[in-house]
Automatic annotation (TrEMBL):
InterPro entries, per database record: Fe/Mn_Superoxide_Dismutase, Mn/Fe_SOD, Mn/Fe_SOD_BS, Mn/Fe_SOD_C, Mn/Fe_SOD_N, Mn/Fe_SOD_N_sf, SOD_C_sf
Keywords: Manganese, Metal-binding, Mitochondrion, Oxidoreductase
Domain Manganese/iron superoxide dismutase C-terminal: 114-217
Protein name listed in UniProt: Superoxide dismutase
C-alpha cells in the first residue's frame, strides 16, 4: 500500500481531505545528477533520455492523477473506487520510488568496489564482493518479464539481503527491506543498446554503480 505517498500532511477524515485536495503538493520528476550521455558507453544517452523523461515522467504524471481520484473518492466515502485505485497507486507510486533511487545509484564516476562499513557488511553477509555481484546479477537476470533486482537492508535482522520484485512493486512495501541498490531490468532500461541480452546489460551496469550513494543509504538504514 502506498498511502504514505498520498497525503503527506493530512489525516484521513473528511474535512482534512477536502482541504488537502486543494493544497497538496504534486509529485515531480527529479532532475538527474548527470547528463543523459554521462553513463556511456555502459548505458547510452538515448536510453537515459527516454527512460527518465518519458517512462519515469509517465509514472509521476499517472501517480498525480491517481492520487487526485483517490482524494475525491475519500471525500465522497466511495470505498469501491478507493479499492479499485490501489493497483494504480502501487504501480505508479512504485515506479516513482524505484526510479528516484535508481538514478542516484548510478554515477559516471562509479564502479569499482565499496569500502568501509558497507564492504565489511558485504563480506559478512555474502562472503566476498564478487559473490554479491554474482548473486545479485543472477537474481536480476532471472526476473521473469519486467522488474527489479535489489540489495536491501533487513533492519530486524541487521543484515544485507537480496530480493527481486516484479513490475514496479516497491522493495520496502513488498518485502520490508530498506532499498540500497536497485537494478532496473525492464526492457526500456536496456533494449535499445543491448537488445534482448539482459545479462550483458547487468554486467555493464556494475561499472557505473555509485557506491558512495549506496553506502549513504546503508548508514541511514541502520539508524
Amino acid at each position: 500500500m502506498l498511502r504514505a505517498l498520498t497525503f503527506r500532511r493530512c489525516t484521513y477524515t473528511i474535512s482534512p481531505v477536502l482541504r488537502c485536495l486543494a493544497s497538496r503538493q504534486k509529485h515531480t520528476l527529479p532532475d538527474l545528477p548527470y547528463d543523459y550521455g554521462a553513463l556511456e558507453p555502459h548505458v547510452g544517452a538515448e536510453i537515459m533520455q527516454l527512460h527518465h523523461s518519458k517512462h519515469h515522467a509517465t509514472y509521476v504524471n499517472n501517480l498525480n492523477v491517481t492520487e487526485e481520484k483517490y482524494a475525491e473518492s475519500l471525500a465522497k466515502g466511495d470505498v469501491s473506487t478507493q479499492v479499485s485505485l490501489q493497483p494504480a497507486l502501487r504501480f505508479n507510486g512504485g515506479g516513482h520510488i524505484n526510479h528516484s533511487i535508481f538514478w542516484t545509484n548510478l554515477s559516471p564516476n562509479g564502479g569499482g568496489e565499496p569500502s568501509g562499513e558497507l564492504m565489511a557488511a558485504i563480506k559478512r553477509d555474502f562472503g566476498t564482493f564478487e559473490k554479491l555481484k554474482e548473486k545479485m546479477s543472477a537474481i536480476s537476470v532471472g526476473v521473469q518479464g519486467s522488474g527489479w533486482g535489489w540489495l536491501g537492508y533487513n533492519k530486524d535482522a541487521g543484515r544485507l539481503q537480496l530480493a527481486a520484485c516484479p513490475n514496479q512493486d516497491p522493495l520496502q512495501g513488498t518485502t520490508g527491506l530498506i532499498p540500497l541498490l536497485g537494478i532496473d531490468v525492464w526492457e526500456h532500461a536496456y533494449y535499445l543498446q543491448y537488445k534482448n541480452v539482459r545479462p550483458d546489460y547487468v554486467k555493464a551496469i556494475w561499472n557505473i554503480i555509485n557506491w558512495e550513494n549506496v553506502a549513504q543509504r546503508f548508514n541511514a538504514a541502520k539508524k
